[in-house]
Amino acid sequence: RPKTTIRTIRKLYAEGKPIAMMTAYDFPTAAACDRAGVDMVLVGDSLAMVALGHEDTSQITMDDMIHHSKAVSCGTRSAFQVVDLPFGSYHTDEATAVGNAIRMVKEGRAEAVKLEAGRRGASKIDAIVNGAGIPVVGHIGLTPQTAVALGGFRVQGKTFSNAQALVEDALALQNAGCFSMVLEAMPSLVAESITKLLNIPTIGIGAGSSTSGQVLVLSDMVGLFDRFTPKFCRGFADLGPRMVSAVTEYKQAVRSREFPAEGIHTYDMPAATEEKWR
Ligand code: KIV
Ligand code: NA
User: Fold this and answer.
1) What is the pLDDT of residues 138-172, one digit of tens each?
2) Of 47, 59, 84, which is best to mutate to test ligand 1, by the most ligand atoms within 8 angstroms of its C-beta?
3) Which ranges in the chain are annotated with CATH 3.20.20.60?
4) From ligand 2's centre to the CA of 139, what distance in Å?
5) Sequence-separated (6 or more) residues with CB below 8 Å from residue 82
6) Which CATH class is domain 6-237?
7) Which of 205, 211, 224, 232 to mutate to test the pocket of ligand 1 (most atoms within 8 A of CB)?
8) For 107, which DSSP code?
9) Looking at the keywords, is Transferase present (predicted)?
10) Which of 52, 64, 78, 213 has the most crowded Cβ, counting Cβ within 10 A?
């Protein structure tokens, strides 16, 4: 499969083919996504919760994200790699935002960065895209980094004025230079209006079927994260319980000395050496 680039993404969008994005957090998850042929992998800061066990995404650092992004890049051959800029890394001023976007490319091997920001992030996005030449994905709707200010993990755009605000955010992000944007947890009708209004692809998660593409959190959709499952997630596999039963079987096999099996999982000495040794 040839390398997926921004041009590939634009082509899929132009042809009306839904774009498949999936999160990845390390080498094996990235390799699985890449082999499955997803168009874009996202090193989401959701890794704070699903890979590191944090309660939310607010404590994850640039160093944490870079560490995981590097591993993901080792497993990604074809898929286009987008990496989340974490909370606090782009909020203060443009120079800091650009500096951290550059670090994510140089150290994390990101091809694009994603910022959870609407209008208030426009000047930073403009600086990253047009100043540093780094492609940016926007993210509006339910923005987990600011879940506290939203009053929790809640669906956005349910009131008329809130839906209007989302449309304005989407337009601001497009004008700032985003090449794509994630629409998270909003009524399908709002996501459809935004998708029709824009001339860049929207990637939905809990935003209905009219968006230009979809993204899910890998751990949620394969059953490796059971603290809670959002309504918008579909379980495509149930690996968590399978992993538990594999380890349970292993433990029993160890206790019963059924594992390791002599002659199968073991090494022998050459016959002559063994003779002498005995
Ligand atoms: O962090 C993440 O996984 C994300 C996706 C849910 C879009 O931002
Ligand atoms: Na994220």
Assistant:
1) 999 999 999 888 999 999 999 999 999 999 999 99
2) 84
3) 6-237
4) 8
5) 21, 40, 41, 42, 43, 110, 111, 112, 113, 114, 137
6) alpha beta
7) 205
8) T
9) yes
10) 213
> What tens digit of pLDDT does each residue of 210-250 get?
999 999 999 999 999 988 889 999 999 999 999 999 999 99
CB 1 within 8 A of CB 37: yes
Single-letter amino acid, residue 249: E
pLDDT tens digits, residue range 253-272? 999 999 999 999 999 999 99
| Euclidean distance between CA atoms 214 and 79, whole angstroms | 15
Prediction ipTM score: 0.99
Interhelix angle 62-75/94-106, rounded to 10 degrees, is 30
Helix (H, G, I), strand (E, B) or coil at 203: strand
Ligand 1 residue neighbourhood (C-beta within 6 Å):
23, 42, 44-46, 84, 182, 205, 215, 217
- pTM here is 0.96
CA atoms of 108 and 152, how far apart (whole Å): 30
pLDDT at 100: 98
Residue 68's closest CA among 259, 57, 12? 57
Q: CA 179 → CA 127, 133, 138, distances in Å?
A: 14, 12, 8
Q: Which residues, at least 6 apart from 41, have a Cβ–Cβ distance to it below 8 Å?
A: 21, 22, 23, 24, 30, 33, 34, 72, 76, 79, 80, 81, 82
Contact 165, 195 (CB under 8 A): no
